[in-house]
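Methods: example folding runs. The two proteins below were folded one after another, and each record is reproduced exactly as written to the output file, sequence line first and structure-token line second.
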Amino acid sequence: MEEYDVAIIGAGPAGMTAAIYAARANLQVLLLDKLAPGGQIVNTAEIQNYTGMGTIEGAELAIKMFEHTQELGITFDYGTITDIQSEGKVKKLICEEGHSYRAKAVIIATGTKPRMLGVPNETKFAGTSISWCAICDGPHYKNKKVIVVGGGNSAVEESIFLAGLAEEVTIVTMLDLTADPSACDKLRAMKNVKIYEYHDIIEFFGTEKFEGLRAKSSKTGEEITVKADGAFEYIGLQPTADAFKSLGILNDFGYIETDAFMATKAAGIYGAGDIISKHLRQVVTACSDGAIAAQSAAKYIEKTF
């Protein structure tokens, strides 16, 4: 079993940045992910607030980041980590696929996954007519009607993207639009967009195929029926840290607790990116976390081994 200096779990912006900084510190680095590199940005139509890039497609930025890691000779492998065990000072990473790795330090950057509503018929249509990725599935709804559930940055940005494809986009959100004001203004100005604020989703409906949703106003109690060909949900995220519960490094909400140096309570284990407890989850802050975690891991290795 090959041993690395640093094993990084998760190849999103935080993980890839950590890998780059660790490699530049002359460490032998393993970068792991169960999916293609990029994390959440792969599913983002446009990113407009990553310094120096202007407006760039999320998938394109992910490719550029991954190419950077490969220019430095960083080892990438596919793997779903189910546990981290201690073998003295060294950590053993157990993979669902049957193989394992050893590393002197570990950086966890597994990010988050989309949250679901938990209403009737959601699972029935999930993956077919209900999606969490507009850039992936939006083209299927060209000149059709779609619903977007949510009012945050992701919901508004993806609604703008969908409005350029679909005949009609209807936004249904529990509160009001909470995204950046400029994005909200742009969305509201689009002629093929309808917005229902302060509505709770009752159910999705459809017999053989998806037909729409029913919702109820939290202010008036009035119920509405929105008919559409498909729906996209953007109601928040939940941490993907179940594999690390036994380490005692998660808070009550399932996020990893770190200090200012991205260190957890477990020696030699660090967190970075959306998976950690923090105030702002953006590409630029994820990259910052990754850089700090890599530097901290390098100092830990130098001191410990």
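Second run, written to the same file directly after the first:
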Amino acid sequence: MMQPAFRKIVIFGVGLIGGSFSLALRKAGAVTEVVGFGRSAATLNEAKQLGILDRIGDDVAREVCDADIVLVATPVAQMADIFKRIAPHLGSNTLVTDGGSTKGDVVAAARANLGSKLPQFIPAHPIAGGEKSGASAALADLYQGKRVVLTPLNENAKDAVSRIRKAWEMCGANVSELTAEQHDTVFAAVSHLPHLLSFALVHDLAKRDNKDQLLSFAASGFRDFTRIAASSPEMWRDICMANRDALMVELQQYAAELFVLHQALESNDAAKLEEIFSLAREVRSAWVQK
């Protein structure tokens, strides 16, 4: 009988991302033991009951010294502290990866806190989130056919990157690589901005005196556009602050686009509206069919 690819994996943050990583590797028969750490005893206990964890960790030093992989799947603002806690205790063969939606800040936190262990950290972003969070949201097939972006450091050995790539591929993911800067620029446009806009629309309606009446008439278009406003406020606060510069550029560009629409309406320019809508429809239809 073949040995699993990974003997022991330690996960910090056993919610949707961390929990699904464990369940996917278990389903693939790729891991022997999974140990979890987190801020909430209730979440950790739930994760153990759901079969995400074999054990709840109580000693970081003991658990990370002989782990094959440590996955940090907490909100990005908590990662610096975790890197600091694990750095003195990481085994020489232990690789660290993360599930953060921003990469520049996570890489900076790793550089500031991992010291000589920095080459053992291979940053990653699984693009498979959902509006639900917590251990109960974890799914064994969450990463099937989804993209995971690695943003390797110059300090990473090729075999270390390959090993983390293999772990995500065993979860069913399609793995690609970008630099941290490329990653943050791309995701400011296609992920972080849409979340910001979705939260903003719902917040705008929430402040109005007739919000109940408005929401009672909202249908599928509103539901589709605002689905992601049900995402974790803490997580998205951290993402927006972490990718602030790139996100502000995108927000400025979007504000300019809104102004073009405003001008078209103000000047009764139906042709301009149709031109904008037609191009948008064409690009969206082609993207959906890919």
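Comment on the second run: The first strand starts at residue 6 and ends at 12.
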